Amino acid sequence: MTDESRTAIRRAKLVAIVILVLLALGAGRTVFMRHTNAKTLEANAADSAKLYVQVAAPKIGGTGETVVLAGSLQGATQAPLSSRASGYLKRWTKDIGSVVEKGELLAEIESPEIDQQLTQARAARQQSAASLALAKSTMDRYEELKKTGFVAQQSLDERRGAYAQAQANLAEADANVERLKQLESFRRVVAPFRGVITRRNVDVGDLIDAGSGRPLFILTQADSLRVYVNVPQSSAHLVKAGQKVNITQGELRGRVFEGQVARTSAAIDPNTRTMQVEIALDNKDGALLPGAYVQVALPLTAAKEMVIPANALIIRAEGVQVAAVEAGKVRLQAIKVGRNLGTSVEVIDGLKGTEQLVLNPPDSIVNGDAVTIAK
């Protein structure tokens, strides 16, 4: 074998060794990378398996709430004005929108029947007065004759009885005259208080029937108003007389009127499960009109119950629950809720107040799940 052949073989061996070394290095690198990737994947999988949660603690009382209710404005005093005297409307002096003072004339009624009845009653009274005078003079004569013994005691007693009856007849006649005088005074319809005429239901010549019940006018006191609202049972116990409320009307943008709770019905209506509340409202400037639709914002004081975020609730077939975190583990706790305050709810029973409650718990959460509290 020549020197050139030996040199070529040595070169070939060297190249083969280099190739084998390179292949060994590549294989080692591949194995190392696979091992490293496996560890990284395993660490990522373990980290992904952890359940990170945010928690919140219950609060006592909270900040209260504001209940917005719909209502209609009414005059502080509103009265339908009718007449007790029947007849024909002679004239009216005030129309709708008129501001009237107490005692001001609104209308007059012409009733000739009452005039005739009053004339007849006065004549009957004169007859009763004459009968009384005759009975008294007769009784006086019998008193004198009794002293001389010319009449019996029975006859004197009869004259005394006739005199007493004549007195009663005169009293009855006087009462009838006064009744008709009072009835005649009702022909003048006057305002019982200061207010605004909001309705007129009659015109000149209309027949007025005292027993029909149809009012001639509607008189409303508009300088002070009242609103009736129905507060739900869940908030009724927080409403007290004297509370301030804010009243708004959609047509009067930017204006807020302050009212005050005047009184409550102090009872729950069994049909609606609400309590009626009356709110007094000053309206000296006349900006608000009786009958208008308004919104009443009724601020309620905070209750003593614990309050938790609404997104901590778990609602399942078992009832309402929360997920409390204890030593990194989940414990599902059944609770009894009270009022819904929007972003929070009251808890009546089931919590001590020291729990850490999971916010937005997943549907799959169960007792014993390991969790990590996220900062």
Automatic annotation (TrEMBL):
GO CC annotations, alphabetized: efflux pump complex
Domain Multidrug resistance protein MdtA-like alpha-helical hairpin span(s) in chain numbering: 117-178
Coiled-coil regions, chain positions: 156-183
Domain CusB-like beta-barrel: 228-298
GO molecular function, one term: efflux transmembrane transporter activity
Family: Belongs to the membrane fusion protein (MFP) (TC 8.A.1) family.
The protein, known as: Multidrug resistance protein MdtA
